[in-house]
Amino acid sequence: MNSRRVVVTGMAGITSLGSDWTSIEANFSANRSGIRRMAEWDRFTELNTRLAGPVDDFSVPPHWTRKQLRSMGRVSRLSVLAAERALADAGLLEDASIRDGRMGVACGSSTGSTEEIKAFGNMLLNSVADGLNANSYIRMMPHTTAANISIFFGLTGRVIPTSSACTSGSQGIGYAYEAIKFGRLPLMLAGGAEELCATEAMVFDALYATSLKNDAPHTSPRPYDSGRDGLVIGEGAGMLVLEELEHALARGATIHAELVGFGSNADGQHATKPEQLTMRRAMELALEDAGLAPAAIGYVNGHGTATEQGDIAETQATQALFGSGMPISSQKSFLGHTLGACGALESWFSIEMMNRDRYIHTLNLDEVDLRCGDLDYLRDAPRTMQHEYVMNNNFAFGGINTSLIFRRWA
User: Fold this and answer.
1) What distances in angstroms separate CA 353 from CA 237, 301, 360, 376, 391, one per listed residue?
2) Which of 216, 274, 282, 303 could tie 401 with a disulfide, CB 3.0–4.6 Å?
């Protein structure tokens, strides 16, 4: 089967540490954390954690209309704004060609907006429909991000919703890549988003997997560290514009990177317990797709949630495939676990780091857990390195594994 090459021509994201790489990288370099104590969660007396990485300064642009906004909850607003900025970065925001069926969307989140879920729950509990209207389901539905992006920009290509928890963003990018690679269409908006909600913290709290360093928010999370005590939830959005290479060259687009490999599989064992062998196999699938040997990869952007089982399984799988010299780090140490957004945000970060030869370290990594794989953990400060290929890995509840490989564009 003839396949096409896929390049990244637009990138954007929204995080608790900024919404442009210059600001985010400056905060990373200064060891500034986006985590804070959530005093507003004190009313949830059975919730143990009080830590999160909220986007406190988020607001919608003044040019968005009331009609556009009425179908969008917070998660959709985050994703649509990231998409708007990614399209602008690609030089496509005002290009009519994206609206003639040539551009599609692959995007996801763990869930829709929880305010709407609460309103439907109120109906079931109290037999009243207070707060429900014609747009409530659109704001709540699992594919609200993908649908709202398509509608907002008038995109009539295929829509691929990816509501797969922590791999929502990376599956969005992977499936968009495959749609272009196999000639279905030349342009895709791909990524993921998540809005912060105490219910998401409770999901992990019930598993005894959240950090309880409530009085020292900047010391947590601690991926790969022997002193870790659990993950911290964050929020944000990340979007990439993926484009068929010849299409991008014909219009003189700026190319940020080439996406050369995608692997995805399932553990098939347990909903919340990660499996080292299938994690490794997802990475191998990405390498096979790219036609690369393991030695070609210069850096792995780890999933690094700061959960015991996750950190150990992930790093042991990485060592088994790449050996003990592989550099690895996790930006979740700065932002918390942004769930549906993390795969897209960390792909964006991976490309920025690769293009600048400056790789961000893992915050709060003081002493590597001896049960983790023997790898080259980036600690204390960013490191200067030059690599042609980088890998971004994400692993989700349900036993879903993803691996993406990006190539530096000369």
Assistant:
1) 18, 10, 7, 17, 12
2) 282
Give percent above pLDDT 70 in the chain: 100
In order of their start, the domains of the chain are: 6-408 (3.40.47.10)
Point out which residues pair with 108 in neighbouring strands: 192
Helix (H, G, I), strand (E, B) or coil at 10: strand
CA atoms of 172 and 33, how far apart (whole Å): 27
Q: Find the catalytic residue in 143, 247, 256, 303.
A: 303
Could you tell me the sign of the dihedral formed by the alpha carbons of 37, 40, 42, 47, in that order? negative
Helix (H) or strand (E) holding 384: strand 383-384
Residues 42-47 have a mean pLDDT of 97
Q: Is 387 a catalytic residue?
A: no
Contact 155, 105 (CB under 8 A): yes
Of the listed 143, 247, 256, 337, which one is catalytic?
337
Q: How far is CA 274 from CA 199, 230, 361, in A?
A: 22, 15, 24
Is residue 127 packed enough to be buried (19+ CB in 10 Å), middle (13-18) or exposed (0-12)?
Answer: exposed
Tens digits of per-residue pLDDT, 267-284? Answer: 999 999 999 999 999 999
Cis before 274? omega within 30: no
